Amino acid sequence: MQKKNTSRREFISATGKAGLALGLSATVLPSLAAMVKNAAIPSTSFSQQPLPYAYGALEAAIDAQTMEIHYTKHAAAYAKNLAEACTAEKVDTGKMQLEDVLAKVSKYSAKMRNNGGGHYNHELFWQCMSPSSSEKPSGKLLQHIESSFGSFETFKTQFTDAGKNRFGSGWAWLVVNKDKRLSIGSTPNQDNPLMDVSELKGFPLLGLDVWEHAYYLRYQNRRPDYINNWWKVVNWDFVQKRFDAAI
Ligand code: MN3
Prior knowledge:
- 48% of the residues lie in helices and 9% in strands.
- By secondary structure, it is mainly alpha-helical.
- The two termini are 21 Å apart.
- Bound molecules: manganese (III) ion.
């Protein structure tokens, strides 16, 4: 993967913004947590939100039955188990943000890690898809993708590979790091790049569920076919808004 060198001007701009918000010196690098907080994006609710479209709306990639089971069974279970873990571990969901719990998830139970991640990831995943996909982003995000990965097609290939090559269950991600670089990676199980335990770190812009429950009814073992079709339903407007808010 090609990496874009952050210019001194960009560096100062990034550190300055976060530093002002935190009341710190402009020479301090913004932490991921600070970056997430500064992003003009509402934090993710601890409870499951309504699906933003009908179960059959994404038929170009995912069949209605898969969507219904995925949303009402799998994702609903993560939300329910997260609520149990929050009660047991005294996380005040009225005061704390889910993102803060994930950033310190190593201090909580495996139940919190699995279900906090599972809930966050699915809430993001539903919004990363839309029946009216624009096929590619435009504006600043497209420019950053092209300068980071060479071209939009190369980016798609690398992201697809991250999903295809994730052994077992997990997620593929496009993230923006605290130094404003884009990167692609994957996480196992329900981990995500906000977690302190994750090797891949950053603010997630786009996430793809590659658990078998996300595609097995239509695609059986053919995960690459699922991913290839999934590009038809990516909600680039949403991804772009996250990027604009995070940088
Ligand atoms: Mn899933």
